[in-house]
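Extended Data, panel c. Modelled sequence:
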Amino acid sequence: MAVISLLQPITEFLSIDDRARFLSKLVALAIGLPLVVGWASAIFRWAARRHVGTVPLVLAGAGASAVLFAIVLAVVRSIVFSVDALHANAAGWTEVDGLRVGFTMGLTSFALWALAFVFPFAAEDARVRSLEADKLRIEAELAQFRAHLAPHFLLNTLNAIAGLVTEDPKLARKLLASLGDLLRDSLRTEGEMQTLDEQLEWLRRYAQILEVRHAGHLAFRWDVHDDTRRAVLPRLLLQPLVENAIQHGVLKRQGGGEITIRTRLDGEKLVCVIEDNGPGIPEGATRPDAFGLASVRKRLALRYADEAQLRLESSSSGVRSIVELPRGQ
């Protein structure tokens, strides 16, 4: 700030050799600049703690700095111009000129302070607020997904367990244990990300329950490459796609069918494929009530922007939901 503030009086002195004017500005800067930086920084910290708006603070600070410099320069000018040797060298610099120049110097000094201190703070604050907003949106998406999952899945599974209590108590107990583990894991709030291995373990419990509920009509096949297990992705990202494949794919097929879950690495991308052998969907259409597709697309957009995607490939032999995202570690 000091170097930039000195450029103007030095340049002026070199062009017109007015020692009185140069000395007046130099002394005014030496007095006024530390005062502006000191009080403006103190007021800014006070305003930040009390969440006072930035715009009123900047306007008030600019005005106060202009008045301060105008007064300081007027006083310094009167002292400097009282020295005959300097006054004789002055090139007609009036008191009005001094006030005008002091006013401009005050505004310039405050602008430099704002650029050096307020702008970086505002930029960082905007970045942090953006990250917090993204986090809140992601948490809202995850909460919406949990709310969608719990009611119908829990009710249907409990009905299945109730039917097995007398027919197959051992299987009923096993199913109840899997349901408890599943719900406990889905309600954990320790973070939005998890490893693919953890997510697949959750999906295996989910699949086990569904295979019992739809005995003879639904089967799962797993094709998981070992080098993908430590990859990191959003929690429960794949579950809506599995549910979508069941409800709108396999169970629409006469006699039921099979769902295959595949994972692989493609360079730095993690590729997850949920494939069913249902009847497929018309070209360019979307399955009715396809909550899973919208949920996954929103979460990918919030987390990865343009670095991840979900696409569908449909044929008469079924539908593939393909998720590609940075694998993370």
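The CA atoms of residues 122 and 269 lie 35 Å apart. This feature is highlighted in the accompanying rendering.
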